[in-house]
C-alpha cells in the first residue's frame, strides 16, 4: 500500500483529505469557492462577503453580512497588554515572525476561545472568526508602524480595507489613495487570496487543528508555513526579481534565457496544481493596470512583468513544463502602487488567507470522524544493527 493515496476524513496516514470549501481544476485553470467561480466573486463580491462564503458555505444575506461587518469593525483594536509585545521585537524582525507570534499570543487574551477543548472552542467559533479576521489586519498595521518607528494609529469606523489603510498610513495619505481606488484594489487582492484548497499553509493549519489545537495556534502555524519563498514569500520575490531585471537594464529577455538555463527561477510562475493559467493571476494583472491608472502612476515593473509573461507563454521551455503566471506574479505591483512596503507583502497574503485557514480549522473541528493527521513514510534508512562501544567506532 505504500505510496498509494487513499481518501480519509483527516489525512489519517495518507496524503489526501476531503473538503467542500474550494474546488480547483489545475488542468483547466478553474477555481471555485463553495461552487461559485472566482471570476464571478471578483466581479460582484467583497473580501468580507467571500470570507463568509468560504467559512459558512453560503453567500450571506444582507442582514448577516451587516452583522459580520459590525462584528469585524468592533474587534479592530487589540488589548493594550499586547502593545508592549511589539517592544520585545528588534525593529528589523521580519513581519511574518511578528505576525505568527502575535496571533498565538492573541489566544492568551481569549482563554474561552483557545481552550483546546473542541466543544468549548467551537461554541465561540463565530466570535473567534470575526476577531481573527479583524485583528490580523490591526497587528499587520501595528507591525509596520513599529518597524517605521511611528506611533500606532488606532482603528477608525471604516470599511475593512479603508480601516487597514488608515491604521497603516493615518489620514492624509490614506484619504488620497482610498479616493483613488486603493481600498477597492486591496479588497480584491484579499478576496483572491481567501482560500486555495490544500496549499502548504492551509494543510499546516489542518495538521495542527487535527491534534485538537485551538484556532489561534493553528493560524499562527499557517503563517509560518506561508512565509517560505516557494509559497507566500513568492510575492516579495517577484518584486525583487522585477527590480533586479529593471536595474540591469534588461527588458526581461535576458532573464528568460537565464531561467531556461536553470540559472534563475521565474518567481510568480509555476504551480503545484495549476498546469494552466492561475485564474487569480489574470484578474490581478487587470487590477494592477487599473490601480496604476487611477492613482496616475507609471510603473516600469508592470511593463517588464507583461514582457516576461508574453515571452514565457510563447517559449517551449515554459510551455513544455506548463509554467504559467500564478497569484503572486502581479499582486506585488498592486501592493507597491498602494504604498505597502515589499517586506509586508507576505503579511498581506496572510490577511487574505485568514478566512480559508479559519474555514479549514472549522471543517476539522466540526467533523466527529476527523482523526489526528499522522502521515506514514517509506523508510529508507539503515536496517537493524548492534550498538558499537566508543573504542570500536
Ligand atoms: C503559491 O499550493 C497553492 O495553492 C499555493 C498558492 C496558494 O494560493 O496558496 O497558489 C500560492 O504558493 C503560488 C506559488 C508561488 N511560488 C512561486 O511563484 C515560486 C516559483 N515557482 C516554483 O518554485 C514552482 O513553480 C512551484 C514551487 C510553485 C511549483 O513547483 P513544482 O510544481 O513542484 O514544479 P517543479 O519544481 O517540479 O518544476 C518542474 C520543472 C522543473 O524543471 P525540470 O527539472 O523539469 O527541468 O519546471 C521548472 C523546474 O525547474 N520550474 C521553473 C519554475 N517553476 C518550476 N523554472 C523556472 N521558473 C519557475 N518559476
Could you characterize what this model shows?
- The protein has helices at residues 38-44, 47-56, 62-74, 80-83, 95-108, 118-123, 125-147, 160-169, 171-179, 182-192, 200-210, 215-226, 234-247, 253-260, 279-295, 300-313, 316-320, 328-338, 345-366, and strands spanning 22-25, 30-33, 36-37.
- The protein has 19 helices and three strands.
- The longest helix has 23 residues, at 125-147.
- A three-stranded antiparallel β-sheet has the order 1-2-3.
- Residues 1-14 have low confidence and may be disordered.
- Bound molecules: s-citryldethia Coenzyme A.
- Residues 196, 199, 230-231, 234, 259, 265-273, 321, 323, 326-328 line the site of s-citryldethia Coenzyme A (SDX).
Amino acid at each position: 500500500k505504500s505510496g498509494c493515496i487513499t481518501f480519509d476524513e483527516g489525512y489519517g496516514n495518507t496524503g489526501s483529505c476531503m473538503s467542500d470549501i474550494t474546488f480547483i481544476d489545475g488542468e483547466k485553470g478553474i477555481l471555485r469557492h463553495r461552487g461559485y467561480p472566482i471570476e464571478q466573486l471578483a466581479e460582484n463580491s467583497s473580501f468580507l462577503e467571500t470570507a463568509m462564503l468560504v467559512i459558512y458555505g453560503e453567500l450571506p444575506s444582507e442582514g448577516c453580512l451587516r452583522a459580520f461587518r459590525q462584528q469585524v469593525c468592533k474587534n479592530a483594536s487589540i488589548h493594550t497588554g499586547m502593545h508592549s509585545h511589539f517592544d520585545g521585537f528588534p525593529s528589523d524582525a521580519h513581519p511574518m515572525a511578528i505576525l505568527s507570534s502575535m496571533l498565538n499570543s492573541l489566544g492568551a487574551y481569549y482563554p474561552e476561545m483557545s481552550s483546546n477543548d473542541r466543544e468549548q472552542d467551537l461554541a465561540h467559533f463565530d466570535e473567534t472568526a470575526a476577531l481573527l479576521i479583524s485583528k490580523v489586519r490591526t497587528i499587520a498595521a501595528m507591525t509596520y508602524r513599529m518597524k517605521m518607528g511611528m506611533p500606532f494609529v488606532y482603528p477608525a469606523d471604516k470599511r475593512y480595507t479603508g480601516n487597514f489603510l488608515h491604521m497603516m498610513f493615518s489620514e492624509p495619505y490614506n484619504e488620497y489613495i482610498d479616493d483613488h481606488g486603493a481600498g477597492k484594489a486591496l479588497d480584491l487582492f484579499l478576496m483572491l487570496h481567501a482560500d486555495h484548497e490544500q496549499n502548504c499553509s492551509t494543510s499546516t493549519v489542518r495538521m495542527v487543528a487535527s491534534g485538537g489545537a485551538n484556532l489561534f495556534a493553528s493560524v499562527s502555524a499557517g503563517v509560518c508555513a506561508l512565509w517560505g519563498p516557494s509559497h507566500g514569500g513568492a510575492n516579495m520575490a517577484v518584486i525583487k526579481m522585477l527590480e533586479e531585471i529593471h536595474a540591469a537594464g534588461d527588458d526581461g529577455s535576458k532573464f528568460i534565457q537565464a531561467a531556461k538555463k536553470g540559472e534563475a527561477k521565474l518567481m510568480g510562475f509555476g504551480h503545484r496544481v495549476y498546469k494552466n493559467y492561475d485564474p487569480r493571476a489574470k484578474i490581478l494583472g487587470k487590477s494592477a493596470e487599473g490601480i496604476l491608472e487611477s492613482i496616475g502612476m507609471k510603473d516600469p515593473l508592470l511593463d517588464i512583468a507583461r514582457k516576461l509573461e508574453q515571452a514565457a507563454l510563447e517559449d517551449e521551455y515554459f510551455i513544455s513544463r506548463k509554467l504559467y503566471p500564478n497569484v503572486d506574479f502581479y499582486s506585488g505591483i498592486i501592493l507597491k502602487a498602494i504604498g505597502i512596503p515589499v517586506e509586508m507583502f507576505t503579511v498581506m497574503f496572510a490577511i487574505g488567507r485568514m478566512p480559508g485557514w479559519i474555514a479549514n480549522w472549522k471543517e476539522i473541528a466540526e467533523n466527529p470522524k476527523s482523526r489526528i493527521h499522522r502521515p506514514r513514510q517509506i523508510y529508507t534508512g539503515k536496517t537493524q544493527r548492534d550498538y558499537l562501544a566508543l573504542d570500536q567506532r
